[in-house]
Amino acid sequence: MTRPDPWQDILDPGETILWQGRPDPRPHWAALSLHRAASGLVVTLIALFWIGVASRITSDGDFPAPFHLFPLFGLPFLAVGLYQLAGHVLWEAYRRAHTWYTLSDRRAFIATDLPLRGKTLRSYPITSDTILTFDDSDLASIGFAFEPVPMKRTTRMRGVGFERIADGRTVYALLRGVQASAARTSQGVHPE
Fold first, then answer.
1. What b-and-e string marks burial along 16-49, b requiring 16 or more CB atoms within 10 Å of the CB?
2. Tens digits of per-residue pLDDT, 119-137?
3. pTM, 2 dp
4. What is the pLDDT of residues 46-73, one digit of tens each?
5. 3-class state of residue 69 by DSSP
6. Which of 111-118's residues contact partners 24+ apart within 8 Å by CB, and which partners?
7. For residues 86 and 59, what is the distance between their CA atoms, to the nearest angstrom?
8. Any transmembrane segments, and where (predicted)?
C-alpha cells in the first residue's frame, strides 16, 4: 500500500519541493534586552510584593471569603513580568520547536503546531519583487515577507522568514534561484 503524498493538495501542478528544514529550537539568550529584562524584573518584584502582602493581610485578618482571593490579582502581573524578564525567549524556543519550513520552486511555507492555535500552514510566493534579507550567522535567518501586526493605534510590519536555520547559505541560494526563475517567467522567458 502506497502512502499518500501529504503535499498533494497543497502544491500546484508541477510545483516541486527544493528544501525542507526546521529552526534550531534552543533558547536564543542573545535576544534578551537589558531594557526589557529590567522592566520585567520591576513588574515581577511588584507582583511578588503584592501577592505576599495581600496573602499576609488576608490570612491574618478576619475577612469574608471573597477577600481571600485578593492575592490572586497579582498573578497576571507576575505572568507579564516573568514573560518580559525571560519568558519571551523560552516561548520563542518553544514556537521554533513546533515549526517546520519548506521551500518549493514557487513558494516558501511555514507550518506550526501551537497550543490554542492548532496546526497552521502559511505560504508566501517568491517573486522577482520579493525582498530577501539574509542574516549570515551560524544559525542564519532569511526574510522573504512582511505581515501586519495590529497595535493599539497603528499597525506595525513584522518580518517573516526562515529563522535560525543551519544551512542558511544553501537555502538563500535556493531562494535567489527561485526569485531569478520568477523574473525570467515574468519576462516571458520559460525555463527549458
1. eebbeebbeeebbeeeeeeebeeebeebbeebee
2. 999 999 999 999 999 998 8
3. 0.77
4. 888 888 888 887 777 676 667 777 788 8
5. helix
6. none
7. 31
8. 37-57, 69-91
